[in-house]
Amino acid sequence: MENTPIADAIKELLESKPIFENRDVLRSTYVPDYLPHRDNEVDALLKILIVALRGDTPSNILIYGKTGTGKTAVTTHVGKEIEKAGEERGILCEVLYNNCGVIDTQYRLLAELARNFGKRIPMTGWPTDQVFAEFKSAIDSKKRVVVIILDEVDKLIKKGDDVLYNLSRINSVLENAKVSLIGISNDLKFTEFLDPRVRSSLGEEELIFPPYNADQLADVLRQRAEMAFRSGVIDDDVISLCAALAARENGDARKALDLLRISAELAEREKVEGVQEMHVRRAQSKIEFDRVAEVIKTLPTQSKLVLYSIMVLDKAPELIRRSGRRIMSTGEVYQIYKRMCDMIDIDVLTQRRITELISELDMLGIVNAIVVNRGRYGVTKEITLDTPQDNVYHVLSDDLRLQSLIDMRPDSIQMQLG
DNA sequence: CCTCCACCGGAACGTGAGGAGT
DNA sequence: ACTCCTCACGTTCCGGTGGAGG
Fold it and tell me: What is the model's pTM?
């Protein structure tokens, strides 16, 4: 039988030894049976929720912690264990997980909750109180304890805290069932915007999850790596590097896992036997670029144009360099910006506004801008480009209003500007 | 020691879009 | 359909800054 090139390629790809045994273990949504270095948090949560198994109402809980500190993992993990233990003892205890980042209106949340108990609620159309009433009657039909996990609660209260108010008082109108709430937030200050009554009711207990340090992250990674990879494809140096890099950025376990997974994917694509430190470095810059691209994509046109002005200026030969980077001032950027606005017929904003846009770009980590005093020569921002820019062009030119300009590329624009 | 550059960044205000209430 | 509010985005105005250079 004659093989086509593609058939050969498929054969080769299938036969090459895979690096992964189970890729999904490295996703942050995967919850392992044991969570390293979260024993205290698991304990604390268990102690609060345990009363559910005696048929009592657990206190409402607020959980705080930066992203990737294991809030969601610990909570769902403990939730499952409690449910299981209840089952074994013949106690009806249900733990419902909701991500308010996805379910972000009160209607949807209540509808979702009610559906969990077999109620059929239309996607839209009913008055919210009716949905609430349905939910109430659904849970109250039996003697049970219901624990409602609200992940990313801060997203929910953006549109008013009515749901939280109603849910936190629901126990007073229930005869059989008991409800307790667990709110998860990565914003420590989000309760400030809450109705005081809701705040005190929701925050009966508060848990704060500290970030992982590098050693702890390494343990987390080792545990997952053991399940995720064939033995021998990854050595401890790679894991330590991933852990160290992620620890530098707030001890985010999600980031550490992403880093490890993407490193391995890069290695796999190269058909190399094992993952090397080089892959980790490359994975990091890939992640960084994806982040930047995402940010730039969502920037308003004016900000993009300011960024592009900086990029054009960055190519200018006459600028002073410092450690390889070209330094420019607000005034210089503004001059370029104005002329480019003319070229593509876009409103010219004032320098005051541009200063602000530059500061925003700085906060987003796309450029560096520090305010310096040049004495006799005034105060200005010293701006340097902070992004590997070659990749940025196509992201910028997605904006139709800028397309013609971006396609010209900096060098030829400079010719035109003179 | 004084001056003065070239911009920073706060304050107050204007405008239009979009949402809530009625 | 109507008003009323809020919000994001911009503008104008302007006082403030701090060290290089005289």
Answer: 0.76
The residue that minimises its CA distance to C1' of C22 is A376
Encode A77-99: b = buried (16+ Cβ within 10 Å), e = exposed: bbbebbbebbeeeebbbbbbbbe
β-pair partners for A322: A325
- The matching CATH number, chosen from 3.20.20.370, 1.10.357.140, 1.10.10.10, 3.40.50.920, for A299-417 is 1.10.10.10
A382 Cβ contact partners less than 8 Å away, ≥ 6 residues apart: A327, A328, A329, A369, A370, A371, A372
pLDDT, tens digit, 9 for 90 and up, residues A23-76:
888 888 888 888 889 999 999 999 999 999 888 899 999 999 988 899 999 999
Å between A417 CA and C15 C1'? Answer: 35
CATH number at A17-26+213-295? 1.10.8.60
Scanning every strand, the nucleotide with its C1' closest to A302's CA turns out to be C9
The reply to whether A349 has its C-beta less than 7 Å from any atom of strand C is yes
CA–CA separation, A314 and A290 (whole Å): 22
Nearest nucleotide, CA A349 to C1':
C10
Rounded to whole angstroms, how far apart are CA atoms A368 and A337? Answer: 18
Q: Which of residues 88-147 of A touch strand C (CB under 7 A)?
A: none
CATH topology of domain A39-209: Rossmann fold (3.40.50)
Question: Which window residues (285-304, chain A) lie with Cβ within 7 Å of strand C?
Answer: 300, 302
A352 CB contact with strand C at below 7 Å: yes
What does the pLDDT read at residue A310?
Answer: 93
Give CA–CA dist A323/A386, Å, rounded: 12
**Closest nucleotide to the alpha carbon of A374, via C1':** C19
Q: Is any atom of strand C within 7 angstroms of residue A341's beta carbon?
A: no
So where are chain A's domains? 17-26+213-295, 39-209, 299-417
For chain C, which bases have at least one atom within 7 A of a protein Cβ?
9-14, 16-21
